[in-house]
Design a protein that fits this description.
The chain has helices at 7-10, 13-45, 47-50, 58-80, 94-116, 150-163, 168-172, 176-183, 205-213, 226-237, 275-288, 310-319, 325-328, 333-340; strands spanning 195-199, 218-223, 245-248, 261-267, 289-300, 343-350, 353-359. It has 362 residues and is of the alpha/beta class. It has a domain at 170-359: Vaccinia Virus protein VP39 (Rossmann fold). The protein starts with 6 loop residues before the first helix and ends with a strand. It binds S-adenosylmethionine.
């Protein structure tokens, strides 16, 4: 049998959907098991952290379960509609995850030590710290060496998957429909001449998803971390087709000329930026996107999106070192988009993420 057959041609859709739901259920159970054990150990070895969080009500847990189910349903529907291939729902980095899972546990004693000693800016002596903005030189999520080591880059996606009960990519995929919609403004151009930039691309997952949904467009990614860019290069170089161009750059000063990109995206960056830097990055994205082009931001939900989930949002920076999250959840991002010059601004919410979609006026 030829390997050119797609999942859609080989297996009835009902069975594929069931397989997707079953795998997602498995990921959720795994994440819950991991979190339960890790919380128990943390309450023994880093008791001060335990005191900072409030328990979630049964109502909140039920609401979150429902929102998660809705996310998975939309994820399936968008694939079913052909916004991206159904195979993308199964295209996870399992080998990488298994390889680095033991290291997540081995890193935990370092995390407890940092939590108990309130060390938020600790870096090993071999880590180069020159040239980075101060707000960046922190152990975000209590991560050893912040974003600046290869081990941090290896563990990041696994940790995010556990945090989001296996839905990190499903949430990232919610940028794909608005991106396709935005790029359709340029459907008179050959796909190869369409340029899309992912700001703070991290280890490259968002670019991988954008590539699957848009096989021919030219992709670009920037991030401040050389270690995360190395990891992204590894991931993306395995995908057939044109290699995305990756550059080390601050989102506040993108090394591209004005009006260069047809689409710009940024995922899970803004909650890690101080308020003025959020504005600077949005304005920089406005500068580099073409008139008629689209900017799509995906990040954590905010209090105004779900006031009833405020306790959960307040617990997050109490568990993970997230110095700008408290100000982020109260920030008015629509106003920031308007201030930068974006129009036709739309917001969406999926599970624990929110999305802002804005267009540069023609
Ligand atoms: C939470 S991670 C998100 C990574 C990726 N977008 C994802 O979907 O997982 C935040 C990323 O933003 C990068 N970052 C933080 N501040 C930045 C800045 N000012 N300019 C560029 N990248 C930045 C970090 O190096 C890190 O890779």
């Amino acid at each position: 049998m030829s390997s050119d057959y797609t999942i859609e041609q080989l297996i009835p859709k009902e069975i594929t959907k069931l397989a997707y739901q079953t795998i997602q259920q498995g990921k959720a159970s795994f994440s819950l098991g991991h979190q339960t054990l890790s919380n128990r150990l943390t309450s023994i070895f880093a008791p001060s952290q335990d005191k900072k969080t409030k328990p979630l009500s049964q109502e909140t847990i039920e609401k979150l379960t429902k929102k998660r189910e809705q996310l998975l349903e939309i994820d399936w529907e968008d694939a079913n509609q052909g916004i991206y291939p159904i195979s993308l729902l199964f295209n996870e980095e399992w080998v990488d995850f298994l390889r680095y899972y033991p290291a997540v546990w081995l890193d935990m004693p370092h995390i407890w030590q940092k939590v108990e000693k309130k060390q938020y800016h600790k870096f090993s002596s071999d880590i180069e710290k020159q040239g980075y903005p101060n707000y960046y030189l922190q152990n975000f999520h209590h991560q050893t060496n912040g974003y600046l080591s290869d081990m941090s880059a290896n563990l990041y996606d696994l940790q995010v998957e556990i945090l989001f009960s296996g839905t990190a990519n499903a949430m990232r995929r919610r940028i794909l429909a608005p991106l396709k919609q935005g790029l359709s403004n340029f459907s008179n151009l050959p796909p190869q001449s369409i340029k899309v930039l992912d700001v703070a691309c991290g280890s490259g997952y968002t670019l991988k998803l954008i590539r699957a949904a848009n096989p021919k467009v030219s992709l670009f990614g920037t991030d401040l971390s050389p270690a995360y860019l190395r990891k992204a290069n590894q991931l993306l170089s395995e995908i057939p087709g044109e290699l995305p161009q990756l550059l080390q750059a601050n989102g506040e000063e993108l090394p591209y000329q004005d009006n260069y990109f047809h689409g710009v995206t940024s995922v899970f960056l803004f909650h890690e930026l101080p308020p003025q830097v959020r504005q600077n990055v949005i304005e920089e994205c406005f500068r580099v996107v073409k008139p008629g082009g689209v900017f799509i931001l995906c990040d954590s939900m905010q209090i105004s999106d779900s006031p009833d989930l405020e306790t959960m949002m307040e617990n997050f920076p109490a568990i993970f070192h997230e110095p700008y999250y408290k100000s982020y959840i109260k920030d008015d991002l629509v106003e920031r988009f308007k201030l930068a010059g974006f129009e036709n601004i739309e917001t969406q919410q999926h599970f624990v993420s929110k999305y802002l979609i804005g267009y540069k006026p023609l």
